[in-house]
Amino acid sequence: MKTKKAVVLLSGGIDSAVTLYLAKKEYDCRVLIFDYGQRARKEVECAKALADAAECPYEVLKTAFPWKGSALLDLSSPVPASGEGEGIPATYVPARNIIFLSYGVSFAEAAGAEAVFIGAHQHDFSNYPDCRDEFFERYRRMIEAGTRSGAEGSAVRIETPVLDMTKSEIIAAGYGMGVPFEFTWSCYEGGEHPCGRCESCAFRAKGFKEAGLEDPAAETTGGKAG
Amino acid sequence: MKTKKAVVLLSGGIDSAVTLYLAKKEYDCRVLIFDYGQRARKEVECAKALADAAECPYEVLKTAFPWKGSALLDLSSPVPASGEGEGIPATYVPARNIIFLSYGVSFAEAAGAEAVFIGAHQHDFSNYPDCRDEFFERYRRMIEAGTRSGAEGSAVRIETPVLDMTKSEIIAAGYGMGVPFEFTWSCYEGGEHPCGRCESCAFRAKGFKEAGLEDPAAETTGGKAG
């Protein structure tokens, strides 16, 4: 039994699944899953299956972004195809990572955990402002000033172990740790099978290809891009 | 019709009510109310009544802190009486203001609003780490790095107009603007009437006394401390 405790944010995607397995090496992990009205309803089911596979207790937090403001939330707004558009993607959800991280910090303080793990990575999706190193650095300084743990000199740490890895490096690392990729979901759409055309499907396919590995979810679901 | 838009966080207490009326002078305001399982169920009803009185549309966001970690959330944990304990109060809710502010920023970005108003003040409750100037300064820098509006050079502004006012100054300012204090709720407990013994009831009573004003809620509810 590990004595150090951590909270791991789990979206059901590859990055957070690998992050969970990295965190598990050193920490007794509590998993935090968000059901926030996302278009991809399979994410939540995949996240639960991943937490179960990793034998970590989980909490599903139901919340909402009633003001929408993202193609991931507004069903009348199309998910852009891979390569479509520039700048910050239409799939950016205003302040989502800030909110999710902060729930993680809240959970960590209440549970006596010393760290929150988040599976952000800044290379493939470098246009998301809330996935960049500079954001995390400033977030940490904010936590040091604005929380009980910070005021007491032991601020909850924000751990981003895959931040500087490419998708294929993340996949290879997860493969080595036995991450059950068949329980991960990447597609932004809400279908039963991955759409194969959104940015996230494209990055997943590219990542597995570059890692020289088969995507087990592609086989399970029959989707082309997995 | 004002052209500048703002989001105002409204708890149903005096500070946020006065903040709403201050914001209304310059902005077309959208109100954001949180129903987060707080012990004081009257807060949400008061906040709605305040928004209606101010003729501002509101959104009630239902969320939760299932890990508790605060006397305001855990009904088995007593609310301390005024003057009881030192350091950070048992009524501190881990990361609550950070989460609420961030929902405000999300709402503001989605609605094209330029500012979020929060009624924090650092004097009476100086032991809450998330009500101090240093916290807000760092929060602003984090927003500049981690949001779409920040990346585009026009980060949502965090406005704290009552931060450096005392409770009696806040009450006097609100009185001058016609804030309907009969619709505000301060007590931490979940009763029909204010308990009169918690820190928040004590500060309210002291604030009205120092401002030389009657608390209209004390008359309406029949509570001793209002």
List the helices and strands and how they pair.
The structure is a homodimer of 226-residue chains.
Chain A: E1 5-9, H1 14-24, E2 28-35, H2 42-53, E3 58-62, H3 96-111, E4 115-117, H4 133-146, H5 148-151, E5 157-159, H6 167-176, H7 199-211, H8 216-221
Parallel strand pairs in A: 1-2, 1-4, 2-3, 4-5
Helix pairs in contact in A: 1-6, 6-7
For the termini of chain A, the CA-CA separation is: 35 Å
Structural class of chain A: alpha/beta
Q: State the shape of chain A.
A: globular
Query: Architecture of chain A, according to CATH?
Result: 3-Layer(aba) Sandwich
Low-confidence stretches of chain A: 219-226
User: If helices are DSSP runs of H or I spanning 4 or more residues, what is the number of helices of chain A?
Assistant: 8
The H-level CATH homologous superfamily of chain A, spelled out, is: HUPs
> What radius of gyration of chain A results from the CA coordinates?
17 Å
Number of structural domains of chain A: 1
**Quick one: how many beta strands of chain A?**
5
CATH class of chain A reads: Alpha Beta
Q: Report helical residue fraction of chain A.
A: 25-40%
Taking the sheet with the most strands of chain A, its summary is:
5 strands, parallel
**Mean pLDDT across all residues of chain A, rounded?**
89
Chain pair sharing the greatest interface: A-B, 48 and 48 residues
